[in-house]
Specification:
Layout: E1 2-3, H1 14-34, H2 53-67, E2 74-80, E3 86-88, E4 95-101, H3 111-127, H4 134-147, H5 152-156, E5 159-160, E6 165-167, H6 173-187, H7 198-214, H8 225-238, H9 245-249, E7 261-263, E8 276-280, E9 287-291, E10 295-299, E11 306-310
Parallel strand pairs: 2-4
Antiparallel strand pairs: 1-6, 3-4, 5-6, 7-8, 8-9, 10-11
Length: 311
């Protein structure tokens, strides 16, 4: 929890965020992901200063448990002085003990944000979904909370001015906006109407722009002129008759700052008729591999997104 200190910005965790979205689709399936088509409503987790602290926290926790469809999970919420915003004891259940930072005794409007992260920990624990390393696992938790409809609360808890700052979670504000925009694209939501923090709205707009650029990378038909020109040059290099399969595979690739990679697997006699290109799905980031033969319509087998490509 950044409390008065500097807030990190930008996209330093973007690759882990994308891997987290892919992992969610692989573990939960398309149908389960789409069961979370409605985000947590602001009114369900609202907390005013006149609410009794412990009863109000338990009420918000129950709403988040309901959102994640964990009917047998019971959260016991307490408060203590600590460095982090919150902590949950991931035991076998059905009872889970959550500790919130004493700060939330007086900053009650953000209790829902802190609990959203901790209840997501419980949900992923029950799924058996985790990443190696503490930091990577926390990024997975923030990404899952946001993509499954509760993490907008974490972004709304971000506030920063010249005298103070507050941010919850491990993602940067822009990364929260990026994931939130990915979710909004899938479910047709407009989360901007829920923000009470002006800084959170700004971060969402920035993240939304970054998410849109994922949909404008070649070989997708929506790619811009500069991207299309670079793609054509890399495709031409991959088709050069003197290039072996290894050289063709090296045309393009993330090491050169582009998301696509050409391969000539299955080509016989040095021809290029079997040239293929692989690229990440802009929705779930699972890699898709299609033949290089002009206009192609591809369907992601993981998230079922239909993609218009110009290969």
């Amino acid at each position: 929890m950044a409390n008065g200190g500097p807030v990190e910005h930008g996209y330093p965790h973007l690759e882990v965020v994308r891997a987290s979205i892919t992992a969610l689709y692989k573990r939960l399936s398309y149908d389960t992901i789409h069961a979370f088509d409605t985000s947590v409503a602001p009114v369900d987790v609202a907390f005013c200063d006149t609410d009794e602290l412990h009863l109000g926290a338990q009420r918000v926790a129950r709403e988040l448990v309901r959102h994640y469809r964990l009917p047998d999970a019971r959260l016991i919420v307490g408060f203590r002085e600590m460095t982090h915003a919150a902590n949950v004891e991931l035991a076998a259940g059905p009872e889970y003990f959550v500790e919130l930072n004493d700060r939330f005794r007086t900053h009650r409007r953000d209790i829902g944000a802190a609990l959203a992260h901790e209840v997501t920990h419980v949900y992923l624990h029950r799924l058996g979904l985790s990443f190696p390393g503490v930091r990577e696992n926390e990024i997975l938790t923030d990404t899952a909370a946001t993509y499954l409809g509760a993490g907008w609360l974490l972004l709304d808890a971000y506030r920063e001015d010249g005298a103070s700052s507050q941010k919850l979670g491990y993602l940067t504000p822009e990364e929260f906006g990026y994931v939130l925009a990915k979710r909004a694209r899938v479910f047709g939501e407009d989360p901007s109407v829920w923000f009470t923090s002006a800084q959170a709205y700004t971060a969402y707009v920035e993240g939304r722009g970054r998410a849109r650029r994922d949909e404008e990378q070649p070989p997708l038909s929506a790619a811009g002129w500069a991207g299309r020109r670079r793609y054509a040059r890399d495709r031409r290099r991959a088709r050069e008759p003197w290039a072996g399969a290894g050289a063709r595979a090296g045309a393009g690739g993330t090491e050169r700052g582009v998301p696509y990679v050409f391969s000539a697997e299955g080509v016989r006699g040095g021809g290029s008729g079997g040239l293929r290109v692989s690229f990440p799905c802009p929705t779930c980031h699972q890699r898709i591999r299609v033949p290089v033969r002009g206009r192609v319509r591809a369907r992601c087998g993981l998230c079922r997104t239909v993609l218009e490509c110009d290969t």
